[in-house]
Amino acid sequence: MGAPYRLERAAWRRGLTRVAGVDEAGRGPLAGPVVAAAVVLLPGTVIKGVDDSKRLEVEEREHLYDAIRARAVAWAVGVVDPPTIDRINILEATRVAMRAALEGLAVLPELVLTDFVEVHGLECPQRNLVHGDQRSASVAAASIVAKVTRDRLMDDADRAFPQYGFARHKGYATEEHRAALDKHGPCFLHRRSFSGVWELAQGELFPADRMRD
What we know:
- It is a single chain.
- By secondary structure, this protein is α/β, with parallel strands linked by helices.
- The chain has helices at 6-13, 58-71, 82-88, 90-103, 132-135, 137-160, 166-169, 175-184, 207-210; strands spanning 19-25, 34-40, 74-80, 111-114, 126-128.
- The chain is globular and about 55 Å long.
């Protein structure tokens, strides 16, 4: 069925025409950036099939990614790299990415809907929805844009660091990824503050580290 437009329609009826859905991808992985997206849909716009990105197949996400970018009033992404995640923690990095995505929009939102995470310092109202990517089509659209963007970044990372298999697991803690970490140690893209990476990052002589010099 896809994510509903009930919250958007209620806002549109109240005259709020610039409703921004915001979501992130990549809070849990051991490697790679956290990516957030913001999407504003024109009142009355319905994009068939938009849903929580985790409930979609890769081909569906790719198709919807193109449809969302073509039909949205505005969309933008924010990316926070692993060193920053290590420095400020993953929750704050998620907020930074979300704020960057909102600031990158070509229009000024009148209402922001997020997937639970509160974005600090906004000048407009926001609603932080539990399972927002399943309750709001705008948030679901943002989840798709964020997920596809991040997956493509991890495909690029795979070409730079092929020994880890990033294209297959996107940096998540799969058995394959953990085995590669045991063998090669962490590289520049790993989040050294995360359990499972931290123990391996205590030394400074891993070959993968030297690959970025």
